[in-house]
Write a structure and sequence with these properties.
The structure is a single chain. By secondary structure, this protein is α+β, with helices and mostly antiparallel strands. The protein has a single domain (24-162), classed as HIT-like (HIT family, subunit A). It has helices at residues 10-13, 28-34, 38-41, 80-101, 138-143, 152-165, and strands spanning 43-46, 50-54, 64-68, 105-109, 126-131. Strands 1-2-3-5-4 form a 5-stranded antiparallel beta sheet, with helices on both faces. A hairpin with a 3-residue loop joins β1 (43-46) and β2 (50-54). α4 (80-101) packs across α6. It starts with 9 loop residues before the first helix and ends with a helix. Bound molecules: zinc ion. Zinc ion is lined by residues 24, 27, 29-30, 71, 123.
Length: 167
């Protein structure tokens, strides 16, 4: 890999826009929790300290997010109870994805901070998504486009039903 030095970019990179300090009133994850109907926001589960929701821009069918209820931006800001609940929800989501989609593998992860790839850096969230061998297909490689065969409505119904069946 080649390195291109660009010291003039330092001010920009360390600059004044702090994407992680937006307020909870402007946060889509805080807003989603206020909506009463789960189907309207594709909420799978509402827990005491965290909730589970479908990603509106899924990488694959079944792409979920596990999100602490409170507006925090880093894992160390979760209290002990929330940490336990989030991990339990991640594991349940894994079980549900295996049941519904029978994937070859599963990605679990979090992007902490905009620089790490977080789309909504101000409210931390864990991604969990099913993967299949060679699911990075021709369209992804050539057209930078992903093909998502199943609608969010159908994914929500299938995942929600499985979630409620599993203790
Ligand atoms: Zn928030």
């Amino acid at each position: 890999m080649e390195t291109m030095w660009a010291p003039w970019r330092g001010d920009y990179i360390t600059g004044t826009v702090d994407h992680e300090k937006t307020k909870s009133e402007e946060c889509v994850f805080c807003e989603a929790q206020k909506v009463q109907a789960d189907r309207d926001r594709y909420i799978i589960h509402r827990g005491k300290n965290a909730f589970v929701i479908l990603n509106l821009y899924p990488y694959n069918n079944g792409h979920m997010m596990i999100i602490p209820n409170c507006h925090i931006c880093r894992p160390e800001m979760m209290d002990a109870e929330t940490r336990c609940e989030v991990m339990d929800l991640i594991i349940k989501a894994e079980v549900v994805l295996n049941k519904v989609y029978k994937p070859h593998g599963i990605n679990i992860g979090a992007n902490i901070g905009a620089a790490a790839g977080a789309g909504i850096a101000q409210h931390m969230h864990f991604h969990i998504l099913p993967r299949w061998n060679a699911d990075v297909n021709f369209m992804t490689a050539v057209a930078n486009t992903r093909v998502i065969p199943e609608s969010l409505e159908i994914s929500w119904t299938k995942i929600r039903d499985a979630w409620n069946e599993i203790p």
